[in-house]
Fold this protein.
Amino acid sequence: MKTVDWTEETRDILHPETDLPEDSRDYALRPAKLDEFLGQAAMKENLAIFIAAARQRAESLDHLFLTGPPGLGKTTMARIIANEMGVDFTETSAPALEKAKDLVGILTSLKQNAVFFIDEIHRLRPEIEEKLYMAMEDYELDFIIGQGPGARTMRLPLKPFTLAGATTKAGMVSSPLISRFGISCRFSLYESADIEAIIRRSAAILGISIDDEAARLLSTSSRYTPRVTNRLLRRMRDYAQVQKLPSITRESVRDGLNRLEIDELGLERLDREILRMIIERYGGGPVGAETLAISMGESVDTLEDFYEPYLIQTGLLQRTPRGRIATSLAYKHLNIEMTRIAGSPAAGGAGLFNI
Ligand code: ADP
């Protein structure tokens, strides 16, 4: 295999199109129609029915609650729904809605039956959440005009709309808010076959060819997450392009993943550091999420939303009420020997494993 000269010039070749961060150029890869959205079959089937029924009645679709780890397609699905309904799409995130007037401004400018997407809906301020209740239920808003004794409340009618609320933390959304959503979409990590299909679709859009074996290897390193899949595919394209390969091969994927320090289970350096930290500093666990996050220099949110779902899915980490535990698989994967000391939680409660 050719060696690559990583000069400034090489880097320019890699990202010639624009200075924009890559994610904002991702629109080309983002499916726009329901049948371009791969995976999550049961959810898609139900949504297709609800969309068809709402269209027949010329009504807005019921409010949608979208939950699941980041990068699984919550935003994409909300956009697709707007496309399929033939309505406008407006997007914001809960932290951006600082004042009630921010919400009022958006709601009053929504077009008929529009989809209004709020990301991180678990982070809504209580006074904004209250306002949303009435808007969701009655398509009306109470709005206070003026200040002091002269202040008066005005009731504003709204056009019917669909609120699409997305969150990685369904448990942190209040039950009054949850109960106002009529449709719930729970995104789970993708099957390998779906990830392979996404790789082939994205490769075709990017105009690159990829061997079957290369696609398979890449799919096992994608954390079952389309956003990661697309990111890795773009990196593999970079490596193949600079090495002037006509197509992405198994060998170039292997080499590329090595360079990115991604191992055969798809773990990145930080995933391994989390496991190593639990094992080496906390005797295999249990260790609380906050303690662990502080030790890693990461936020609890990042730890819980991005790293943990995959570590749990691969059976390397367990979440227990007393904290996080590295499983025997984690020891094996990191090649760390388990030494039995009486009373270990990592041994399934039978004895204490330590290193
Ligand atoms: P989330 O909102 O859950 O964080 P996004 O909707 O932003 O995730 O998805 C991240 C990216 O992954 C999208 O830009 C899109 O390119 C890709 N993607 C997500 N789901 C799918 C899918 N089912 N099929 C193909 N690509 C997908």
